[in-house]
Amino acid sequence: MDARSETAPPTQAEAATPSRARSRLTRGRLFTLLGAVIVVVALIFGLDWLLVGSHHVSTDDAYVNADTADVTPLVSGPIIEAPASDTMPVKRGDVLVVIDPSDYRLAVAQAQAQLGQAERQVEGYFASRDTQAAMTEAKVADVTHARAQLASAQSDFDRARTDLGRREALAAAGAVSGDEITAAQNRFNETRDAVAAAQSAVAEAEADQKAAIGQARGAEALVAGAGVADNPAVALAQAKLDQAKLDLDRTVIRAPIDGVIAKNSVQIGQRVDSGALLMTVAPIQDAYVDANFKEEQLRHVRLGQPAVLTSDLYGGGVTFHGRVVGLAGGTGSAFAVIPAQNATGNWIKVVQRLPVKIALDPDELRRHPLRVGLSMKVDIDTNR
Question: Which CATH number does the domain 69-101+251-281 belong to among 2.30.40.10, 2.40.10.10, 1.10.730.10, 2.40.50.100?
Answer without folding.
Answer: 2.40.50.100
